[in-house]
Model the fold of this input.
Amino acid sequence: MKKLCILKKAVLAAAIVAILAAGSTVGSKASTVYSNDFSSTAEGWTNTGAVGEWGVESGEYMGNGYYGGGALFSMRDDVAVPSSWVYETDLRWVLSGWSWGDTNYGNAGLVISNSATDPGNSQYMYFGIERKTDGAGVTQSIYVSDSSSHIWNSASFQPTSAAYHLKAERVNGNNYVTVTVTGGTDSFSVQTDDVPYIDQLTKVGANVYFSKWGFDNLSLTTTSGPAPVPEPSGTLALVTGMAGLVGGFVRRRL
Done:
């Protein structure tokens, strides 16, 4: 009788676990707002800012601002930024154009703004990689800024390559953004302070500054509310039925 009681408890416990597992699928559902691997086209992007050019080259969206100086933007006016998002891209450094003595400098990254036509003179947030070469070698850092003259920098890190992955993330509608850069075997993150106008930043874009960089696998994804609760599966129904049968069997034996 003791063994039967243990069996009954085990089957009932399995049924409860299955029910809880089914309920645990309720949560946020990720969906893609925009993505482009630039294998063929960059249609829909509008270039603005400093002298320079953007165009698809060998499967990358190449921003070439090294000879024009200043901030060169490429923006989209047809991609709406939701309240929770992940905006990310692969980045490859090609050439720096700004020099001061023996130092070459440039940066590139992603932009969200309230204007697709004049992002640099509007409310914006910029998430980028700053790369500097001097007599001591190459150093890099995450460089994040906004139109209120706030600047957030990570510690400098030594690169193992000139290729990176840049990700900016705003979760749960928070007013701050977490930015992570991975380059080779190195990975660094920085978190901004609260940005009170972040909900007004509804346009996405890219930026290069005094340098030439290639963008690839660029995407904006969002979490858009709770996922539907799944119907009980056949396995769950079977486990529940077995629990009932075993329970009845145990009662008859007792």
About this structure: Residues 2-23 form the longest helix (22 residues). Confidence is low (pLDDT under 50) at residues 2-27, 225-254. The two ends are 7 Å apart (CA to CA). The chain is about 15% helix and 50% strand.
